[in-house]
From TrEMBL:
Belongs to the BolA/IbaG family. InterPro entries: BolA, BolA-like_sf, BolA/IbaG_stress_morph_reg. This is Acid stress protein IbaG. The gene is ibaG.
Length: 81
């Protein structure tokens, strides 16, 4: 799997205003900014991202995914664009 493929999977399952994915083919890192995260705790946000990947986590196609999740307001507060 490529970073572009992983990014497309997340974007297809979750409305994102910003999405970055990097990694080495098995170990991935993502920054996900979504209005769907409003009012959600970190674990709930991560579960929402994991849900976009479906069986790919269970089949080891995506071995590890670390992520930072933000609402648009939280992302803006970081000074990122």
């Amino acid at each position: 799997m490529t970073a572009e493929q992983l990014q497309a999977l997340i974007a297809a399952g979750l409305p994102c205003t910003h999405l970055e994915v990097s990694g080495d083919g098995r170990h991935w890192a993502a920054v996900v900014v979504s209005p769907a995260f409003e009012g959600k705790r970190a674990i709930q946000r991560h579960q929402m991202v994991y849900a976009t990947l479906g069986q790919r986590l269970h089949t080891d196609e995506v071995h590890a995914l670390s992520m930072k999740t933000y609402t648009p307001a939280e992302w803006q507060a970081t000074g990122q664009r």
